[in-house]
Design brief:
Elements: E1 5-10, E2 13-18, H1 28-43, E3 49-54, H2 77-85, E4 91-95, E5 98-100, H3 102-109, E6 112-116, E7 120-122, H4 136-144, H5 146-155, E8 159-160, H6 161-167, E9 172-174, H7 177-190, H8 206-210, H9 213-223, H10 231-244, H11 247-262, H12 265-280, E10 298-301, H13 305-316, E11 321-325, H14 328-347, H15 355-361, E12 363-367, E13 377-380, H16 386-399, E14 405-408, H17 415-419, E15 428-433, E16 442-446, H18 453-465, E17 469-473, H19 481-498, H20 502-512, H21 518-525, H22 527-537, H23 542-549, H24 575-588, H25 597-617, H26 624-634, H27 644-651, H28 653-666, H29 676-683, H30 689-697
Parallel strand pairs: 2-3, 3-4, 4-6, 5-7, 6-9, 10-11, 10-13, 11-12, 13-14, 14-15, 16-17
Antiparallel strand pairs: 1-2, 7-8, 15-16
Length: 698
């Protein structure tokens, strides 16, 4: 018998237990073990009922995604499920922890399902650019009806045991999975209940068969945020097949949809992103076994937009926060905004009705830096100027307790220089949150020269605890994300001097899949910020300066690169801007030319990739995938393109290097010359991914 699946008999009930840590994934060994044990139990004349359960912390949590893309090993999951579904003896799935993806598909092929109170059940394949491929799109609509099935399959979010019971996905909530499963199986046998095979039960499809708008409306509501993604629409089609076709034909349609997605570029990119995120949590260059420091309370300095958003992230995770301001008025304003944000989320149904009070109860607003004394982690979110940051860190020495981790939420300033203001540089690092901090998932963790390994590990683990994706980066101007973004910004500006218009540049960038183009983003952030910074440094940017001189600061003034109607955030092209650009170019003696969309795309993306190559060569990022994580979770890079370095590999590094060399010459811009690492990889016919593979081999 299998090592990872065992068969035991409890009188007339056979118990098949999967034990394949950590999450009982459906590897070839697990599939083979379930098949063998089920066959033995079916063939055993003494057995009248069968329970499928799992050891450890969870039921089968999904497919073994390390097997994706490799030749399939028998038995296939469909074969295992067919054996179970056609069993003449009742099979009960006893679920605890999570039954996700293939795990839930296994449970759906059983005749009955029970679950513990804390169980979560779902089909999240869409998040990997896939759809359920083992009958999930056909059995789930028959179990819970097409509306909820669409929500679970196209949305990809799991439901809890209570919702599963209400929907008819499970029959009972039990105390312990194995004991509860056995007790339920005995009941089924004693009562001689008929076997419920979902494949033969169309009763919950009847309403949608009679009125298909029930289904189409549910799909429309879920796919409106799926811009550019293939999987949600393919998943919806597969669920539609459950309504329109007999079961076996629906299965065939599902399989075709699954294989098409599996072999497509989007799913490859989304699966890569899944692994990249997990890889980013592994910190390079830290001694093995380094443990983080305990963080029971966090202090945040500054209750503005960033500080408030960071405080909410900790409160959302149940971690107490001391939020510190310099004056009562600023504090009151900051606390009021957080309260409003929570109430608005609760009103939308995003959090329970009692959550605002609970979470605000965890945030203690006070005036004065001397209140940091009981915090294990202090995060500074004050003005983005070096002098202010240094002053704050100098004071922290006086008031922060020994061993507290001291973090700066700076977006580009030098952490080594900040650390010099304290007598404990080993405790200092950067935690760069992205705005709005309570929503955006990325946290760039900046390792300074003297940052202690355990301080670094603390920052990474606490970021994960508050549902952020941490990416460890080194010290340089703008770290990873903003440093690359600066190269895009430089080219965006140059394109205006050559004849492109803001709306043309932005349209190319959003068509590629980014949430916003550079000019709409500038309007949102406020053009006056860059203007002030340029004046401080004695730098001119003729077009951007002319807009600011005309009082066009972006959305807050109703006009920037675009105009905005009262109360609207919709960016409308403005003939005034075109006129202002033309006048500026005439004054500077510049000639306009027609700039193609292809050129815009190349000049928006390739300089960023070039900068990414420099970042890797300098060791600012440990892996190409870490750069991708920064862009996926901090800047809205489309997940179906896997991140800039992954995408660059798919375009071909030779093509990118050649085009950069061409633009460097054509536009007389030496900054576009291919970086040495990019050129080397291009000449050798290699990819950025080959760097990661080489470091693993070393």
């Amino acid at each position: 018998m299998s090592e990872v699946v065992k068969l035991e008999r409890h009188d007339n009930i056979a118990v098949v237990t999967v034990n394949s840590p950590p999450v009982n994934a459906l590897s070839a060994a697990v599939r083979g073990g379930i098949f063998e044990c089920m066959k033995s139990a079916i063939d055993d004349a003494q057995v009248q009922g069968i329970v499928l359960t799992c050891a450890g912390r969870t039921f089968i949590a999904g497919a073994d995604i390390t097997e994706f893309g490799k030749p399939p090993k028998p038995p296939g999951l469909a074969e295992v499920l067919s054996l179970m579904e056609s069993s003449p003896k009742p099979i009960v799935a006893a679920i605890h922890g999570t039954a996700l993806g293939g795990g839930l598909e296994v449970a759906l092929a059983c005749h009955y399902r029970v679950a513990t109170k804390d169980a979560k059940l779902g089909l999240p394949e869409v998040k990997l650019g896939l759809l359920p491929g083992a009958g999930g799109t056909q059995r789930l609509p028959r179990a819970v009806g097409p509306e909820l099935a669409v929500k679970m399959i196209v949305g990809g979010d799991p439901i809890g045991a209570d919702a599963a019971l209400k929907a008819g996905l499970i029959e009972e909530i039990v105390e312990g999975p194995a004991s509860g499963g056995v007790a339920f199986a005995r009941k089924v046998v004693a009562e001689k209940r008929p076997l419920r095979k979902l494949r033969d039960d169309d009763s919950k499809l009847a309403a949608a068969k009679a009125d298909r708008s029930i289904f189409t409306n549910a799909v429309a509501a879920l796919t409106k945020k799926s811009r550019g993604l293939e999987a949600p629409f393919a998943a919806a089609d597969a669920v539609g097949a459950a309504i329109d076709l007999p079961f076996d034909e629906g299965l065939k349609k599902e399989r075709e949809g699954f294989l098409k997605l599996m072999n497509g570029d989007q799913s490859k990119a989304q699966r890569y992103a899944f692994f990249a995120e997990r890889e980013a949590a592994k910190v390079a260059g830290v001694p093995e076994g380094t443990k983080g420091r305990n963080v029971a309370r966090v202090a945040i300095l500054g209750a503005g937009t960033m500080g408030g958003g960071i405080a909410m992230s900790f409160a959302n995770a149940g971690i107490p926060v001391t939020l510190i301001e310099t004056g009562e008025e600023q504090l009151k304003r900051g606390m009021g905004i957080m309260q409003k944000n929570y109430e608005a989320t609760a009103a939308r149904g995003g959090i329970p009705a009692d959550a605002p009070a609970k979470r605000m109860g965890l945030i203690n607003g006070v005036v004065g830096i001397e209140n940091v004394g009981d915090a294990d982690l202090v995060i500074e979110a004050v003005f983005e100027t070096m002098a202010v940051k240094k002053e704050v860190f100098g004071k922290l020495d006086q008031y922060a307790k020994p061993g507290a981790v001291l973090a700066s939420n700076t977006s580009y300033l030098n952490i080594d220089e900040i650390a010099q203001s304290t007598k404990r540089p080993q405790d200092v690092l950067g935690m760069h949150f992205f705005s709005p901090a309570n929503v955006m998932k990325l946290c760039e963790i900046v390792r300074a020269d003297k940052t202690a390994p355990d301080a670094l590990v603390t920052a990474v683990s606490i970021a994960r605890k508050i549902a952020k994706v941490p990416a460890v980066v080194g010290v340089c101007d703008g770290f990873v994300g903003n440093r690359m973004l600066a190269q895009r910004g430089k080219q965006a500006e140059k394109l205006l001097f050559e004849g492109a218009l803001p709306q043309q540049v932005d349209a190319v960038v959003t068509k590629f899949g980014m949430p916003m183009g550079p000019f709409a983003m500038g309007d949102l952030a406020g053009l006056d910020i860059g203007w002030r910074s340029r004046k401080d440094r004695g730098i001119k940017s003729e077009i951007a300066d002319a807009l600011c001189e005309a009082g066009r600061f972006g959305q807050k003034t109703g006009k920037g690169y675009y105009k905005y109607e009262q109360g609207s955030r919709a960016a409308l092209p403005d003939p005034e801007v075109e006129k202002l650009i033309d006048e500026t170019l005439a004054r500077l003696g510049r000639k306009k030319r027609v700039v193609s969309d292809d050129e815009i795309l190349e000049r928006m993306m390739y300089p960023m990739i070039n900068e990414g190559a420099k970042i890797l060569a300098e060791g600012i990022a440990a892996r190409p995938s870490d750069i991708d994580v920064v862009w996926l979770y901090g800047y809205g890079w489309p997940i179906y393109r896997g991140g800039p370095m992954f995408w660059a590999d798919s375009v071909g590094l030779k093509h990118i290097a050649d085009r950069l060399a061409f633009y460097a010459k054509e536009t007389n811009d030496p900054s576009l010359e291919p970086a040495p690492l990019l050129r080397k990889l291009a000449d050798e016919g290699k990819t950025f991914a080959s760097l990661a593979a080489a470091s693993k081999a070393a």
